[in-house]
Amino acid sequence: MAELQDTGVSFSPYFEIPPERMDEFRGLVDEFVAATKNEPGCLYYGFCFHGNQALCREGYADGDAFLAHLDNVGELFARAQQVAKVTRMEMHGPEPELAKLRAPLAELDIVWFTQDCGFRR
């Protein structure tokens, strides 16, 4: 197998939003995007919706960039969890980068996907 040269990690939290709180959640989404927009290590960031479900697609240059993001939006994430239920969280990336994240995120119920092949342009 070819050696993996990618250090990127992605995080995917899934939310279930009560219909009566959708407007409130969408307001938080705007705050998340504004807070994240100028993070130098963030490669992409956005929310996708399907009915009363939401997924945040987030990609970072490496594990350190993701930890910086958490420091930046931790309070917002706590507020979002008061409005919506987090139904799943996934972390994706090469093992050396995931290893940086496992201890700081140990309290969260994350499904870890280890990347072992691929490329990034």
UniProtKB/TrEMBL annotation:
<feature type="domain" description="ABM">
    <location>
        <begin position="14"/>
        <end position="72"/>
    </location>
</feature>
<dbReference type="InterPro" id="IPR011008">
    <property type="entry name" value="Dimeric_a/b-barrel"/>
</dbReference>
<protein>
    <recommendedName>
        <fullName>ABM domain-containing protein</fullName>
    </recommendedName>
</protein>
<dbReference type="InterPro" id="IPR007138">
    <property type="entry name" value="ABM_dom"/>
</dbReference>
<dbReference type="Pfam" id="PF03992">
    <property type="entry name" value="ABM"/>
</dbReference>
